[in-house]
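Section 5: illustrative case.
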């Protein structure tokens, strides 16, 4: 039987470690893997993508944040297309990371672009 407490526990485990496996969740909560999959897909509306659990759809706030970030990146590009990539993207060793958050200035490793 699925309870709101189990759903919340699964959601918290995923938020703590997006790479956690359904098997690990099932073992920790002592429920079946099938029940874990059902809760993740139907109740939490998530799916596995590149070994991480992610929401299937963005909520309204996430969409707004993405739009704001995109507008800031476009403005940065319009100001100086030749220096756009070095100013907007920083290489932090493993991944390329866009260093803009809504309301923030463009930064690379903490230095304003």
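Designed sequence:
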């Amino acid at each position: 039987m699925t309870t709101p407490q189990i759903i919340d526990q699964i959601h918290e485990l995923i938020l703590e470690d997006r790479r956690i496996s359904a098997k690990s969740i099932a073992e920790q909560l002592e429920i079946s893997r099938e029940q874990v999959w059902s809760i993740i897909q139907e109740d939490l509306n998530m799916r596995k993508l590149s070994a991480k659990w992610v929401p299937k759809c963005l909520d309204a706030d996430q969409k707004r944040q993405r739009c704001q970030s995109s507008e800031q990146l476009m403005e940065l590009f319009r100001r100086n297309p030749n220096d756009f990539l070095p100013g907007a993207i920083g290489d932090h060793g493993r991944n390329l990371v866009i260093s803009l958050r809504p309301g923030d200035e463009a930064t690379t490793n903490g230095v304003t672009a």
